[in-house]
Write a structure and sequence with these properties.
alpha+beta; Immunoglobulin-like; Beta-galactosidase, Chain A, domain 5; TIM Barrel; 3 domains
Length: 629
């Protein structure tokens, strides 16, 4: 019998126009055996590779203000002299924001021997305060556990290795050079000039890298940069050992998706209560019920004046949808549990998890002693509502903790789509590191959002909104990209053994569908034109909801930055989901999913056969393939 291959989440033309700025074509470059690409829009040298090995994930040079926000670079005068196996690229960068006016000239060179150099020559055209200016060098996650030799600023050398589990604190300091093993017999060396560098494990923020940066954090900051100050730095990358043969620059290797051996439970999926609307309409309730959610999530401040309204609305919505509640409790400096206890007695909220935020052991102990007599079988645990680093640096050890969690967002350090995609696999690393100190406690992850949410009433990193969206909202929320990214997030969280995961909000800017017509606001390009229209991520969650309580069969990708896939199983049904993580049409091949069978694309009627099936996906598109067990 022929089974249909459904192409989901088709792109809309308005979104294509709105995202043109996100997908400027990178410039492919080659230095002998080393290939790479230059992202001119962000002044970012990316994906340095030799043969099948990643040498570096990237090199950039951000200007970060006194609040740690990155000043967007405006790149001009890009000149490329490409000789095939060597190159020279020059460009100008202007970083201007508020009182900051800093300009630098970049020079990139690569020779046939595989030596790549990146020079930074800048000058301040105003007086301002900064936390950091200069190079950030990124070793990719494949470096985890690999041997290294470090040369310090005083000339000493030390042998060691990149941390395998996520390191809470800087694994290396006072750096002048790092040599690490790519594979036995092949080494990459990086030399730094112009500053003292140190390394942090950026996987703490789910970034896909170990970041070596200047200036060391032990030096007080912010620092005043006076007008006329000049800053010059250089990074040199070289190879030694059994260097692979040179490859053509810009090759697009085919992506192969292969069914693996690993199976795990599909996490229990939920959404946050909307921060934009006070109640759900009948139409919204109908659509949300179709997602077969496990829970809603609400965060409450014990000292807040709206705690009663917040818990009441969350309780009403959870009961209307027939789901449980996960409640994050912010105790504040002096927790006041009395009003909350009265509300629990009055409302009888269907809470499955009470999660104490902030990391203070005394606050958890008080919460447990006050809540335990009232909450029945509900779990009482802890969570961090910022990101994994705060949990990793403040690891809970109270044996009474029943569940542990943390929030995820992919935009603490970078905001471009390639960097956001790089965070997906690292979500699994964060859960696996948590498992090392959490033991067999349930791991409840969330909220998972594209942008950092408001923290203690302050704007998240990146400052106030620059356009029509609120600060904590990403303008890509209503686009197919968010669905493709969410598919990757669910896949990797499942692979790591996550118990539950909370994504986005029910409705509104941060939701899975737009707000009701009663909410009056403009809808910039990229968002559906009609109120209450469902976003692409809604349709993905609807499919996942069909398999709630089922299992996930892991699918290996030959390129995790371009394609993601997983197989869902439940009650004799099998569903394959394949997602394109790029802004280009992609045709990955699927292998290992069973005997040969003719299948068709609903979008065009083309036919192909298992076990090798090419699936043509539009940019950020998702395909669904239903098969019997």
């Amino acid at each position: 019998m022929k089974k249909p291959l459904h192409l989901l989440l088709p792109l809309v033309s308005s979104w294509m126009a709105a995202t043109a700025a996100f997908s400027a074509e990178p410039i492919p470059l080659r230095a002998g055996p080393v290939t790479m690409s230059f992202d001119a829009e962000n002044a970012f040298l990316r994906y340095l590779r030799t043969g099948p090995h990643e040498v570096l994930r990237g090199i950039n040079a951000p200007v970060r203000n006194q609040n740690w926000a990155t000043v967007a670079p405006r790149v001009s005068n890009v000149v490329v002299d490409d000789k095939g196996d060597s190159f020279r690229v020059t460009f100008d960068v202007h970083c201007a924001e508020a009182d900051i006016d800093f300009r630098w000239k970049g020079t990139l060179t690569g020779n046939a021997a595989g030596v790549v150099e990146f020079s930074f020559d800048g000058e301040a055209h105003s007086t301002f305060k900064r936390n950091r200016i200069g190079f950030c060098l990124l070793h990719g996650p494949s470096a985890a556990g690999q041997p290294w030799v470090i040369k310090t600023a005083d000339g000493a050398t030390f042998a060691g290795s990149f941390p395998r589990s996520i390191s809470p604190h800087q694994p290396a300091k006072n750096l002048r050079a790092i040599t690490h093993e790519l594979t036995p017999g092949l080494r990459a060396r990086v030399d730094f000039e112009g500053e003292v560098f140190e390394m942090e494990d950026q996987r703490n923020w789910t970034d896909g890298s170990f970041k070596t940066y200047c200036t060391p954090l032990e030096i007080p900051y912010p620092v005043e940069v006076t007008k006329g100050t000049k800053i010059s730095q250089k990074i040199k990358v070289s190879l030694a050992g059994d260097i692979p043969a040179a490859r053509k620059s810009g090759d697009d290797d085919p992506v192969v998706l292969t069914l693996g051996d690993r199976k795990s439970a599909l996490p229990r999926l939920g959404l946050q209560v909307s921060g934009e609307v006070k109640s759900l309409t009948d139409d919204q309730i109908k659509h949300l019920k179709a997602l077969h959610l496990d829970h809603l999530r609400v965060d409450l401040a014990l000292s807040g004046t709206d705690i009663a309204d917040g818990l009441r609305r969350a309780t009403e919505q959870a009961k209307a949808l027939g789901v449980s509640l996960q409640v994050g409790l912010n105790p504040g400096k002096t927790p006041a549990f009395g009003p909350l206890l009265d509300l629990i007695k009055d409302l009888k909220p269907p809470v499955s998890h009470w999660l104490v935020t902030g990391g203070n052991p005394a606050h958890f102990q008080e919460a447990r002693s006050r809540l335990a007599p009232l909450v029945g079988d509900a779990k009482i645990g802890v969570t961090q509502t910022t990101n994994f680093v705060d949990l990793n640096r403040n690891r809970p050890d109270d044996a009474a903790i029943q569940t542990i969690g943390f929030a995820i967002n992919p935009q603490i350090h970078a905001f471009d789509i390639p960097s956001i995609v790089e965070t997906l696999e690292i979500q699994a690393h964060a859960v696996e590191t948590t498992r090392e100190f959490a033991g067999d406690r349930l791991l409840v992850i969330g909220p998972v959002t594209l942008r950092p949410q408001l923290v203690d009433g302050e704007d998240p990193p990146g400052g106030p909104p620059a356009g029509p969206f609120p600060t904590q909202v990403d303008e890509r929320q209503g686009t197919p990209f968010t669905a493709a990214w969410t598919l990757g997030s669910v896949k990797w969280l499942a692979a790591a053994g996550t118990h539950s995961a909370t994504f986005f909000e029910t409705v509104g800017w941060n939701g899975v569908m737009d707000a009701d017509a009663e909410t009056t606001r403009s809808r910039p390009a990229g968002f559906p034109s009609q109120p209450s229209e469902r976003f692409p991520v809604y349709h993905l969650l609807a499919i996942l909801g069909e398999f709630a309580g089922g299992t996930v069969h892991h699918v290996e990708s030959s390129d995790t930055l371009r394609a993601v896939a997983m197989v869902l199983h439940k009650s004799g049904r099998r569903c394959v989901l394949v997602g394109n993580l790029t802004g280009k049409t992609l045709t990955p091949s699927l292998r290992g999913l069973g005997p040969a069978a003719e299948l068709r694309y609903l979008s065009g009627g083309n036919k192909a056969a298992w076990p090798l099936l090419p699936v043509e996906l539009p940019p950020y598109g998702i395909a669904r393939l239903d098969l019997p067990e």
